[in-house]
Amino acid sequence: MSGARRSPGAGEHQGLALRLRGVGKVFDAEGLNVTALNGISLDIPYHRFSVIIGPSGSGKTTLLNLMGCIDRASSGVVEACGQDVGTLDDDALSDFRAAHIGFIFQHFSLVPVLSAYENVEHPLLLLGMGAAERRERAMAMLEAVDLADQCRHRPNQLSGGQKQRVAIARALVKEPAIILADEPTANLDSRTGDSIIALMRRMQAANAATFIFSTHDPNLIRHAEEKFVIRDGQLVERHSLDSAP
Amino acid sequence: MILKIALRNIRRNTRRSAMTLSTIAVGAMALLVFGAFIANMVAGYETLMIRKLGHLSVFQTGYFEFGTGNPAAYGISDHRRVMALMDQDDELKAAIRVASPVVTLYGIAGNFRIDTSRTVMGVGVVPADQKRMRQWNEYRVELPVPTSALLADDDPALGLIGSGLARMLGLCEATGVSGCRAPPPRRQRVDGAPSGEDFSELLPPGEADPVHAGLPRIDVLAATVGGAPNVVSLFVGGVEVQGLKELDDSYVGMHLSLAQKLLYGRSAPKVTGIVLQLHSTHDMDRVRQRLATLFQRQGLDLEVRDFTELVPIYKGVIGMFVTIFSFIAVIIGVIVMFSVVNTMSMSVMERINEIGTLRAMGVRRAGIRNQFLAEGGVLGAAGASMGLVGAVVVIFMVNRLGLTWTPPISPRPIPLKLMLDGQGLLVAGTWMGLVALATLAALLPARHAARMEVVDALRHV
Q1: In this predicted structure, which of A139-143, B191-195, B291-295 has the lowest mean pLDDT?
Q2: Are B378 and B19 in contact (CB under 8 A)?
Q3: How far, in Å, CA of B229 to CA of A112, rounded?
Q4: Residue B127's closest CA among B249, B241, B297, B258?
Q5: B361, A103: Cβ pair inside 8 Å?
Q6: Helix A131-144 / helix A116-126 crossing angle, nearest 10 deg
Q7: Computed over its alpha carbons, how large is the radius of gyration of chain A?
Q8: ipTM greater than cut 0.95
Q9: Angstrom distance (rounded) from CA B35 to CA A94
Q10: Which of A139, A181, B110, B333 would suit a FRET pair with B318, their CA atoms being 20 to 30 Å apart?
Q11: Chain B CB within 8 Å of residue A1 CB
């Protein structure tokens, strides 16, 4: 599933990994308009470890989807890495995601027919990277998550924690500006969850990446540098360690 | 990566993939085995035609349309010069295996000893050439080469007749034709009609002939170039069963010189055609064009016809085979398509979350579509390859069993053989066709997968 990539024309660093202004999302549910998000405006600087929290159905995942450019806002502007993603067509948006955004999913979502190494290598294929560099970076990332010895294992041969570590390696291997994680510890026991949080913290520091989570996990929330509280589709609260606006 | 994922996904659900592969493989086998059977039949039919009629026939211009009504008027007067010209042309000489003059005539054959007669078609040939022509076997089909019932170069009075003609002339017993009965007694003659004795009077007085002792004699009457009736006697050396009843009831094969004597009398002998048998059928068009150029350059008023024009049903038979094969191919194609569509649709349904993940990672819609198309193509390629191997095994076994069958154009059983050698088009067409079909069948599920919205796919559990 690789292909030649076009540059999405992402803006240079302007201090903000994500900038949302008046973002709304309305779903059409069998003829009824359901407002999932309404007038969300927020800024997330680069290199932050941020969480989005809120009760179930509050719109956390919808907001994360918009930030990850896998869904389009019904209103407002979403800028990622300085690029107004609403102006990109589907292919350009795919290329943008391939270049700038990494995902870590609750259910790990590894490609089951690929080994741990191949799963980590896959995002680099999408960038058209050469074989030698792919191998070097994928193995380095697997070593960083302490899975070099399991690189040939298929996902069904790995534990939940190992799968999530592969997913983290996969998200980070292309060195994206933004990494989005939807409930990354929800399917893990507490000890494994702690180790995954520690790993993500370590990787975030090492790679200077911007991590944004949606979570209910208090342990993960405790590690966050910035917290956004969503309720009924609206941003109701924001806490920042550096008291950024 | 696309192929790697495709291959591994096919292996992921072994039972389902095995069923689909089996369907494709059996379809490929059926097409190849049936195609090999038809190829053998076509090759056998063509071989029969070429052995009897050659590839090309050279006629005086107009003979093909009008000559059978008046063969004497459309004779080639100097066939030896024409044949010499062909022999001097390097290209023609290399391509032509046998060039043989023939005389075709129409007349009445009678066994006047029992007062019976029948209109006949006589064919005068050079026996040695005829014998060589019957050994042509470009496709190496297992058709028996008739060794009996051949004419003799040194015996112009020896002839052959169709088994139906033997029956009508009351020669079953004398010629050893089994399963036929003597003709019923003649009804009362219409007033004024000529009697057998009238024709008999044209014959030279009967003499004892120790060479042909024991052979039945018939007399053949035809009109000469001048319009005068002419009669020759023929000793029936054997019966040659013709595949077509009409021909079997009227066929008389004779030595070229006897046919010339009958048709041209004391005039300068001509021939009605020159039969050309080539080493290879593939050369037919090229030789035909070369001959046309040669005749034009030499100012000869001759035309060239190929055997498919002389036997119009040939193209019809080939067309029928092609139609039957195409019909079966369509049925197999539909079955394969349904099987692949079903498999690929299930695969898409099972991998919705994976599709969402890949799209989120940055795979374009086209990438998703191509992934499933590749899986369809790999299924088709693997199934078609398995079918090809299976077909080779089946064909090998059938060819070893020694089965026989009797085709409608053959008077006797022939070996049932399946011919895959030299059928590159059949093999390549079947293989590529099934791969293309499987890929095409995957298009619908692939498009469905590609059109999924990322968030919907990721939400799917």
Answers
A1: B191-195
A2: no
A3: 93
A4: B258
A5: yes
A6: 130
A7: 18
A8: no
A9: 48
A10: B333
A11: yes
